[in-house]
Design brief:
Blueprint (H helix, E strand, L loop, with lengths): L1 H11 L12 H9 L19 H15 L5 E5 L8 H14 L3 E7 L8 E4 L3 E4 L16 E11 H6 L8 E5 L11 H17 L4
Parallel strand pairs: 2-6
Antiparallel strand pairs: 1-5, 2-5, 3-4
Helix pairs in contact: 1-4
Length: 206
């Protein structure tokens, strides 16, 4: 998966450098084999299950400020985004410049209205998160979006200050749901494999 993200970044033609931040020697070697650079190893405090994206990027920015030239714009690509595509990376960069936002990141719409979501409560019963919408028609509800988890363009100043992503500082780059699948669980992996087969058959992926 990380090879796909690296190749998409290189093929986009947007970057002077494609950097992988990791604390793992094996991942570093794979990254370099596919054309990325690994100029530093990520510190332990940023290499656990609770480390956030913004602190990791800030660390990379500060490393470059100390050891190389200061970048102007940065794009964080996740290694767990098997459907990220070079043209989307390019178009989002153009959108960032056009809107003059601090960030531009990938989003996609929820398949079902979140206002009619239910939760499972005690004794295997259910209740609505928003009971005021129990009789509201789905087509009358405002569409909701979520982070697609593919890439995050931003200015170096925004990343360095750790300006919140989910705010009016960001411009959303909308992706179709059929190109979005994050990989966090075995179920996600199975779904991604099935999606990939369909996308290849349709000619969306070579």
């Amino acid at each position: 998966m990380i090879a796909h993200s690296i190749e998409a970044a290189l093929q986009s033609g947007c970057f002077d450098k494609v950097i992988v931040s990791t604390d793992d020697e094996e991942i570093a070697e794979v990254a370099k084999a596919y054309g990325a650079e690994v100029p530093f190893m990520r510190p332990a405090e940023l290499a656990n299950d609770y480390a956030g994206t913004l602190p990791v990027i800030k660390h990379a920015v500060e490393w470059f400020e100390e050891h190389s030239t200061r970048p102007g714009h940065i794009c964080c690509l996740y290694a767990t985004a098997p459907f990220v595509q070079p043209q989307a990376i390019r178009q989002a960069y153009e959108q960032l410049q056009k809107t003059q936002a601090d960030y531009c990141f990938s989003v996609t719409s929820f398949a079902f209205p979140i206002q009619r979501a239910i939760k499972i409560i005690d004794q295997q019963r259910v209740e609505m998160f928003y009971p005021e919408h129990i009789n509201t028609r789905s087509q009358d509800l405002e569409e909701a979006y979520h982070d697609a988890g593919q890439f995050y363009w931003g200015t170096v100043d925004a990343f360095r200050k750790m300006t919140p992503l989910f705010s009016p500082s960001a411009s959303p780059f909308v992706l179709p749901r059929y190109l979005v699948q994050d990989i966090d669980t075995p179920e996600d992996w199975i779904r991604a494999e099935l999606m990939y087969q369909v996308l290849r058959q349709s000619g969306t992926f070579a």
